[in-house]
Amino acid sequence: MDILLGQNPYLLLHTEKGQRFFPLVGRAYWTIGRSKDNDIVIKDHCISRNHAILQSTETGDFYLIDLGSRNGTFVNGRRVAIPVTIHSKEQITFGKTEVQFYRPTPTNAGKQPRHLEWDTLTSAVHERCLTSVMVVDMRNFTALTRQLDEKVLSSLIGNWFRHAGNIIRSSGSWVDKYIGDAIMAIWFHGQQ
After folding, report:
1. Cα distance between residue 85 and residue 48, in whole Å
2. Between 192 and 190, residue with greater pLDDT
3. How far is 159 from 126, CA to CA, in rounded Å?
4. Count of CB atoms within 10 A of residue 33's CB?
5. CA–CA gap between residue 138 and residue 108 (Å, rounded)
6. In the chain, how many H helices and how many E strands?
7. Which backbone phi and psi does 35 adopt, to 5 degrees?
8. Mean pLDDT across 171-181
9. Which of these, 94, 110, 116, lies nearest to 48 by C-alpha position?
10. Distance, CA of 176 to CA of 94 (rounded, Å)
């Protein structure tokens, strides 16, 4: 299995039947839950149908977002109320199911000799395209964090992310980033 995972990030789940690996490659986000329409399906009655989202950014960071799950999402024992950055070897709990997040570090980084002239050259590609960027957040979120119970706050922001994401996808875009209580989406208009 190590050969298949290589230097790619993954989630590791220990079960009675052995270990299950969930490679985190090929896309920018993965949905997690017990419903079969999720990218990562975990059969546990304590996990919500649509429990959480794991998102990778262009910088290689990974964010974990609880989608207002009933039994919560935890990183190293702390409840996820807003999107949090996760790091290699951290323990994540969905309901009663524990997984570990792994992000292997390259073993040969910087060791490759650079003898070829074309290997050191970089060229820039420029393309003009009409683009719309939308950043939207919850009004008075900071005040809400002081007034609401952590469990209620987690449910509120999870539902907000889920519904806003559905609206953005139905409008022809995707959630590019989760920033605290905000969502950023991008639309590219027309073919150039």
Report:
1. 21
2. 190
3. 38
4. 23
5. 44
6. 4, 14
7. -70, 145
8. 82
9. 94
10. 24
Strands 97-102 vs 84-86: parallel, antiparallel or unpaired: unpaired
Tokens 């975990």 belong to residue: 42
Name every residue whose Cβ is closer than 8 Å to that of residue 89 and which is 6 or more positions away in sequence. Answer: 100, 101, 102
pLDDT digits (tens, 9 = 90+) for 75-119: 999 999 888 999 999 999 998 999 999 998 755 444 444 444 444
Structure tokens at 5: 């995972």
Q: How far apart are CA 42 and CA 45, in angstroms?
A: 9
Residue with tokens 């999107």: 83
Distance CA 66, CA 7 (A): 26
Query: For residues 101 and 90, what is the distance between their CA atoms, to the nearest angstrom?
Result: 6
Place of tokens 């298949």: 4
146 token code pair: 């002081």
- What is the spatial distance between Cα 151 and Cα 159, in angstroms, rounded to a whole number? 12
Q: Which residues of 177-189 are buried (b: 16+ CB within 10 A; e: fewer)?
A: bbeebebebeeee
Query: What's the pTM?
Result: 0.63
Instruction: Say which residue the tokens 């570990």 belong to.
Output: 100
Give the tens place of pLDDT for each residue, 5-44. 568 899 999 888 889 999 999 888 899 999 999 999 999 9
